[in-house]
Amino acid sequence: MLGGSPPRLLRLSGSAARLLEPGRFTVADAATARLARRLVDIGVALPRPAGGPVSDVTIVIPVCDRAFLLHRLLTALRADPETAGLPVLVVDDGSASRAEVASVARRHCATLLVHPRNRGPAAARNTGLHNATTRFVAFCDSDVQPQAGWLGPLLAQFADPALALAAPRVVATPRGRPGWLDRYEDVRSPLDMGAREAPVVPLSALAYVPGVTLVVRRDAVGAGFAPELRFGEDVDLCLRLYEAGWRMRYLPGSRVGHCHRTDLRSWLAQRASYGSAAAQLALRHPGLVPPLNAAPWSVAACMLAVRGRPAPAGAAVALTAGTAIRLIRRIPDADTP
């Protein structure tokens, strides 16, 4: 079996092959639990836990001004039967319009926590995290608009005791008259991680998930986000959880809308801010934040192929074929679930 992210070759035992032949199986004992753990961790199998009531979770909303967006978010949460009765903590992170934020929180029966000065999104989320008493915490930025039923599938994933974090897909909130940046963000937003469900694993196709909406196991995340990071705190959390041995999952079936920045100046400033976090993340997590992750042979083959001449192209084909032959010879050493 070939699959997963990054791709790998698996040699299935006879019993595992028979179990997987129908296309799904149920964990019933220690052996099937080990097989499921292996296949889920590498992204070959997708867990389908039984759903249950949405409970034992607190919603934390960091906000700085933007009272209108906060009102829209709280209205959506209170209109969704799954989240209507959940405790909500609004963390005012140094708003200039503090009275407006307080009024919106009060109108929607949310508890208000206040930072006298702005300390950043990581610190605001941490304040909510430390004041929550439930097993799970759902972080929602004030500029998101969850679709109905978004939280239940994410919470169901925590039937896996090794799971620390689950994230939905973040899509653009529809606009009445979209401009060219709106249309670009619809298909190339850095917050939209795509339509493929997968585990979150550094150096894979899904190395992190954005922090605009996350559900976490409170005991797993400890002190929470790194407050010294103004940007990249979500990536840092994912890397720390991975290094600690926890699992994380991305579920595109759960969706939240997001107000993407479509003013060119603020859009460029946001992209620059995202890029500024890369150096700090690379220093904090050596080897897990490379600017390029590729095998040397594939880089060499690509460089030869783009020359566009027969001799370099032939060399690229030969190099690829030689690598394939070496891989085939290593098949007996493939992973064996």
What does this structure look like?
The protein is 40% helix and 18% strand. It has helices spanning 14-20, 30-42, 67-79, 98-107, 121-131, 151-156, 180-188, 218-221, 233-243, 264-284, 296-305, 310-329, and strands spanning 2-3, 8-9, 57-63, 88-93, 111-115, 136-140, 144-146, 163-172, 198-199, 213-217, 247-258. The chain is globular. The chain is built from twelve helices and eleven strands. The longest helix has 21 residues, at 264-284. The chain starts with a strand and ends in an 8-residue tail after the last helix. The chain has 337 residues and is of the alpha/beta class. Helix 3 runs parallel beside helix 4 and helix 11 packs antiparallel against helix 12 (310-329). Strands 3, 4, 5, 6, 7, 8, 9, 10 and 11 form a nine-stranded mixed sheet that branches. A two-stranded antiparallel sheet has the order 1-2. The protein folds into three domains: 2-42, no CATH class; 57-284, Spore Coat Polysaccharide Biosynthesis Protein SpsA, Chain A, CATH 3.90.550.10; 296-333.
